[in-house]
Amino acid sequence: MKLIEVKDYQEMSRVAADYLLSKVKKSNKITLGLATGGTPQGLYQELINDHQENKTSYQHVSSFNLDEYIGLSGNHPNSYCHYMKENLFNHIDIPLENTHIPSGKAADLDGECQAYDEKIHSEGGIDLQVLGIGSNGHIGFNEPGTSFDSPTHIVELTPSTREANARYFDSIEEVPSHAITMGIASILKSKEILLLASGHSKQDAMKKLVEGKISEDFPASVLNRHSNVTVIADEEALALLKNHKLLTR
Ligand code: PGA
Q: Ligand 1 mean position to 223 CA, how many Å?
């Protein structure tokens, strides 16, 4: 795991954007794995700014998002489908038909899970997966205890995740109880992973990710088994790490 320490959220977003843009510009066809939440918003804004200034094209890019709430339709303001359009897709030239987000309204949710993994496979897999990390170590919505072998599946969200996400809803009762998420096995199949973390609330998670043992109790720890992971995290998120060799910018 390569660990890059940056000063703050802005620098994390800029460095992540440079990283992703270098891949997008170099390839004729690239499949990105995308995340939602507060962490990648700055990255997406950097990509939008670059698209406006430098006209970087995304015509050859396709994407798969990590997760979606069960029960919210794609145009619900709190759905991740809506988030992606607002925060990225509507502001760059990626063909919308190239973008994939699991449907939280599918009549056959198990079928939707299986079809999602099959679609990723049929597109040749994910070249670069962007991840945030939950304070409990979740990646996507793979909560503690999730099997490392899990494909895309339905999860019940933990109270801590629902509390963390309540800030986007009018009340915690409105936060859906379940979600559909790419599984840990699905995420690990990505050729490359870029994990971003910023701020005080991620300190414990970063310490466990870098210094803890690999355990299903802390889902992100599985990334230590992947051969191509880059973590870009700010000073505050890394403040509890001891004696770790950090790459700085
Ligand atoms: P956040 O969420 O980016 O809003 O902190 C990260 C996550 O839950 O994976």
A: 16
Prediction pTM value = 0.96
pLDDT tens digit sequence for 233-246: 999 999 999 766 66
**Per the structure block, which two tokens stand in for 102?**
């699991």
123 vs 244, higher pLDDT: 123
Contacts 24+ apart (CB under 8 A), 46-54: 46/13, 46/14, 46/16, 46/17, 47/17, 47/20, 47/21, 47/88, 47/92, 48/88, 48/91, 48/92, 50/17, 50/21, 51/91, 51/92, 51/93, 52/91
Residue 31, Cβ neighbours under 10 Å: how many? Answer: 21
Contact 27, 127 (CB under 8 A): yes
Tell me the chain's radius of gyration from C-alpha atoms: 17
Which one of the listed residues 5, 50, 67, 117 is annotated catalytic?
67
Number of H helices, E strands in the chain: 7, 11
Ligand 1 pocket check for 134: Cβ under 6 Å: yes
Q: Residue 119, class by beta-carbon neighbours within 10 Å (0-12 exposed, 13-18 middle, 19+ buried)?
A: middle
Per domain, the residue ranges of the chain are 2-248
Q: Is the pLDDT of residue 229 over 60?
A: yes
Work out the average pLDDT over 170-187: 97
* CATH assignment, 2-248: 3.40.50.1360
- Identify the three-state secondary structure at position 207: helix
CA distance 138 to 116: 20
C-alpha 202 – ligand 1 centre gap (Å): 9
Told to judge if 244 belongs to the known catalytic residues of this protein, a careful annotator would answer no
Averaged confidence pLDDT in the chain: 96
